[in-house]
Every structure is written in C-alpha cells, then in structure tokens.
Amino acid sequence: LLLLFFTEYAEFLHCKGRKFTDFDEVRQEIEVETDRITGVNKGISSIPINLRIYSPHVLSLTLIDLPGITKVPVGDQPPDIEQQIRDMIMQFISRENCLILAVTPANTDLANSDALKLAKEVDPQGLRTIGVITKLDLMDEGTDAREILENKLLPLRRGYIGVVNRSQKDIDGKKDIKAALLAERKFFLSHPAYRHMADRMGTPYLQKVLNQQLTNHIRDTLPAFRSKLQSQLLSIEHEVEVYKNFRPEDPTRKTKALLQMVQQFSVDFEKRIEGSGDQVDTLELSGGAKINRIFHERFPFELVKMEFNEKELRREISYAIKNIHGIRQVLPCLFTPDMAFEAIVKKQIVKLKGPCLKSVDLVMQELINTVKKCTKKLATYPRLCEETERIVASYIREREEKTKDQV
C-alpha cells in the first residue's frame, strides 16, 4: 500500500485492473484507443476516454479535454465537422455545475478566440470561465500579453493565467516535466512584462487555482445538486412502489400505456409542426418549416408563373362595363360598376384555383411525412404504429378533400 501511495500510476476505464506506470505507455494507449474509436484518418467521436492519474505530487482535479474548433475537414472528417465539434463542446460547457477553462494562444487576437466566444454563449456573465493564455514565449518581439493577464482587456470574473508549455521540439527531445516547469518559471521571472506577476503565472499556479476554484464551485453548486438528486430518488422510489404490484396482463395498465403512447405521438407531432422538437434536422427542411416554405415561397412562386395578359384584361373589363349598360349610353365614371367588377374578379380568382390545390397537396404530403416520422417511436408495436398512421393519415386526407371543396 505504501509503495502504491508513493508511486505514480494511471488507469483507463476501458482497461480496468491494469496500472500504467510508464506515461509514454499512457500516451500510446490514448492514441491506440482514439484510433480504435475514430479510425486512423482523423475521424472524431463524442465517446470520452476516461483516464485517472494517481500521484502524491498532484492536486485533486477532474478535467475534460475538449477538441479545438476545426474549420476545414481533413481525412475522414465529415463536411460538417465544425458544427459537430461545436455541438460536442456545448454539450459539456452548458452544464451549470461545470467550470470552463478557455484556452487561447497569446500569438492570436483574443477578440477572435473560439474558446472565449463559446464560453460567452453559455456563461455571458463570466461566472464559470477561467482564461488561460498559452504560447507567451512565441509572441513577436516587442509585444506582450500584459494587458490580458492583468485582466484589463476583455476582463473575466475569474481572470487569466499565463502558461508556457513544452514545444514539439521539447517533446521530441524527451524534455521532462520538471525541466519544463523550471524553464517556465525562469521565463516569467526574467521577462520584463511578467516578472511583477510571476507568482500568479505558470502551470503550478494554474493547478492551485483550479483546485481551489473547483472546490469552491462544488461547494456552491452542491446544495442544488443534492436537492435534484433527492427529487429524482423520491420519483424513482415512487415508481418502484407502483411497480411492486405490477401485472403485465392487467388490462388497465395496457390501456394506460396505450394512452401514454398516443399522447406522446400527439406531443411529438405538435412539436415537429411548431418547430420546438428535441432533435433538429440539419440536412433538410421538414415539418412546420417546410409547410411555412410552401405558403411563403412555393405558393407565391406559382402565382408569379401564372400568365397575365393586360391587354386582354382591359378588353374584358370594357366589354363587361358595356354589357351591363345594354342599350344605355356608357357615361364616364371614376369607379368600375359593381356588377362588372364582380364578374371580372370572379374570373381572375378562378385562375388561383390551380396553385391553391397544388399547395394543398404539398402541405398534406408533408403532414403525412411528419406522421410517419412520429410513428417511428411506436415501431416496437408494429400494429399500433400501422393503425395510428392509418387513422391520422385518413383524417388528414379527409381534411384535404374538404379544403379542396372550399377552394
């Protein structure tokens, strides 16, 4: 036990029981597991690799290393790689019980930082965001990040901390962590822009701050978290009590289950039409959005396509006015007589019947497609799925006929 306490080692969740004492092997295992999950050509996956490190020289911290935003897909990455990574990041940083470590290189414009932009979306007040500025040693000669680190430029409630990591050359040259930390410390103590704040810079200080702030954040969020868990526990205990006397063949339970599924179908259908569903289709328009497009784009387009002969219309108006006067003299007037106006308008409105009927067909078809998508959740019960789809589709077609009759 004493040997384990003083020995640094790591464990992976996917390799239970195996202790890694060589951290080069840890790096290799991460690469192997990444390739196993995502392939060997730069694919991505939201499945996390869980790694726990035990050491008497580190503080207690739980970190989630999220990928940086990729703008252009490479290798086997999908065309929407940027959106996929963004969604993955938002999935984690949106949680109120999570602190956000926004890492930005010092040799880029802070105003264009993807990390700070995403953090601001979910934490507009900056209550959960800690800024980390890297690559301070790579800034152009004569420039520095003093204003940023002093929290004067784009200030954050929790401020910024600067670090200097190993370069790729250092990693390839097997420069160890202790030597890297000494070099980092020397950099801050010797740099004229940072020496006055050297005690508040560097990786060891970042570890200390993260440990303190994470502990405080857990203490602040724990009461609400505990209350939520107790509420869920009471709900589960109530369900357990209900199912203690559960009889699968009980007709009342079958009826209740059937009603719940039908109600859920109704809710899903309504959400797809209103656009408030849990899943958003990014590939094509569907549901209410497509119906909206039919009304506001397709129908006007059909109207514009209609042929209109102004000369012919003027002749029809003239004939209509003369015909309602008969043998009487047609006197000049400011307004078209009512009978002539009504006859001409009715004839023009009839021309709208074609585009209207076409729009009705398109709307009804989209409603039926929406019904089919909603019944997918009932696929476990094929007959219920089939009957639900048949009944709702029959009702929609009935309404379609009534609508066409009105047209």
Automatic annotation (TrEMBL):
GO terms for biological process: receptor internalization; synaptic vesicle budding from presynaptic endocytic zone membrane. Gene3D superfamilies: Dynamin, middle domain, P-loop containing nucleotide triphosphate hydrolases. Residues 1-223 form the Dynamin-type G domain. Keywords: GTP-binding, Nucleotide-binding. This is DYN3 protein. The keyword Nucleotide-binding applies. GO terms for molecular function: GTP binding; GTPase activity; microtubule binding. The keyword Nucleotide-binding applies. The gene is Dnm3_1. GO terms for cellular component: cytoplasm; microtubule; plasma membrane; presynapse. Pfam families: Dynamin_M, Dynamin_N. InterPro entries: Dynamin, Dynamin_GTPase, Dynamin_N, Dynamin_stalk, G_DYNAMIN_dom, P-loop_NTPase.
